[in-house]
């Protein structure tokens, strides 16, 4: 069954760049209004918003710190005021273990901005606490507007890290495992017309990597294939418009394996797409788009940090 996004409205956090921006562009191109909630807009996102400030399809920017729950509530208020009801919510904002919130650079170390007395890791707040809270707010909004009878969607951004281990990024990996658990645990919401799903991208060429030289050195272009934000966005659009997704990204002809989309579905997006099974899954493996050939470049740095006298103590 195909359900067009035309005439509908979406909220996307983190859509100022990367995967979420690619998804936002596709939604607008297909007639869906959007609210972009982010700290700021990169130039390419500003072009999108400026182009659609008015007209039959609109894009609205709401400056939002996703670690602030009041600001998360406000983005829903803005979306309701601008468009009435919301149909699609993507709590997509996320970070990939930068030095300033990092397992191997704990609170109290020079690089960390996680305060020793705050009791919080920004990485956890952004990558899992914010998606949990946005999911709650989305469900509350959908319940308030059940009279329209439309199937509602909450689509999360997981990762192949949600199945893998990574010595270089333990907190990031933990948050993506948590996203998978959240999505599967909410599968039964489809009984009341709310479908909760996720995509699990491989190695994506976004600012999450390209703006961080300490991370991008793990990727060797001659042996590792980048997955593009647009490829992930294509799968996300298919998941909110169709009940099946093809393993061939961007293909709508029915070639290849077709994966059923329902509540709890997680689709891995490397250079192809496949469903991630809850049990006995084969794992991401070495499919093109899933590999980083020089991960030791970062792991060795972590071993050096760990060898420092007093690592992890409150005063370093």
Can you tell me about this structure?
This is 15-hydroxyprostaglandin dehydrogenase [NAD(+)]. The chain has 316 residues and is of the alpha/beta class. The protein has a single domain, classed as Rossmann fold. 34% of the residues lie in helices and 15% in strands. It has 9 helices and 10 strands. It has an 8-stranded mixed sheet with strand order 3-2-1-4-5-6-9-10, sandwiched between helices. Helix 4 (122-144) links the parallel strand 4 and strand 5 (152-157).
What's the CATH architecture name?
3-Layer(aba) Sandwich
Span of the ends, CA to CA: 58 Å
Tally of DSSP helical segments:
9
Highest-level CATH class:
Alpha Beta
**Mean pLDDT score, rounded?**
89
CATH superfamily: NAD(P)-binding Rossmann-like Domain
The CATH topology corresponds to: Rossmann fold
SSE pattern, N- to C-terminal: EHEHEHEHEHEHHHEEEEH
Class from helix and strand fractions: alpha/beta
Sheet-strand content, in percent, reads 5-15%
Overall spatial form: globular
GO molecular function: oxidoreductase activity, acting on the CH-OH group of donors, NAD or NADP as acceptor
Family: Belongs to the short-chain dehydrogenases/reductases (SDR) family.
InterPro entries: NAD(P)-bd_dom_sf, Sc_DH/Rdtase_CS, SDR_fam
Organism: Penicillium frequentans
Summarize the structure.
This protein is α/β, with parallel strands linked by helices and 316 residues long. The protein has one domain: Rossmann fold, CATH 3.40.50.720. 34% of the residues lie in helices and 15% in strands.
Using brief descriptors, characterize the structure shown.
316 residues, Rossmann fold, SDR_fam
């Amino acid at each position: 069954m195909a359900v067009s996004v035309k005439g509908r409205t979406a909220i996307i956090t983190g859509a100022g760049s990367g995967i979420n921006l690619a998804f936002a562009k596709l939604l607008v191109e297909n007639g869906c209004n959007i609210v972009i909630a982010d700290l700021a807009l990169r130039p390419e996102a500003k072009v999108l918003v400026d182009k659609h400030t008015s007209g039959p399809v609109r894009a609205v920017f709401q400056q939002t710190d996703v670690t602030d729950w009041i600001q998360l509530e406000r983005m829903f208020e803005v979306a309701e005021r601008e468009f009435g009801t919301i149909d699609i919510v993507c709590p997509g904002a996320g970070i990939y273990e930068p030095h300033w919130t990092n397992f191997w650079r704990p609170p109290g170390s020079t690089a960390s901005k996680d305060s020793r007395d705050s009791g919080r890791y920004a990485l956890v707040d952004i990558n899992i606490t914010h998606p949990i809270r946005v999911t709650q707010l989305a469900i509350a909004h959908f319940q308030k507007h059940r009279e329209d009878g439309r199937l509602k969607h909450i689509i999360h951004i997981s990762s192949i890290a949600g199945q893998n281990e990574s010595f270089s990024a333990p907190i990031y990996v933990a948050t993506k495992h948590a996203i998978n658990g959240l999505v599967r645990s909410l599968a039964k919401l489809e009984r009341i017309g709310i479908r909760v799903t996720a995509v699990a991208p491989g190695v994506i060429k976004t600012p999450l990597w390209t703006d961080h030289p300490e991370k991008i050195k793990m990727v060797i272009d001659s042996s590792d294939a980048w997955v593009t934000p647009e490829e992930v966005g294509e799968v996300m659009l298919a998941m909110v418009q169709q009940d099946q997704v093809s393993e061939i990204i961007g293909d709508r002809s029915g070639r290849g394996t077709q994966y059923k989309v329902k509540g709890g579905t997680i689709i891995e997006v490397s250079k192809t797409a496949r469903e991630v099974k809850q049990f006995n899954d084969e794992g991401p493996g070495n499919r093109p788009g899933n590999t980083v050939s020089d991960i030791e470049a970062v792991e060795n740095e972590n071993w050096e940090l760990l060898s420092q006298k007093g690592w992890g103590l409150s005063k370093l």
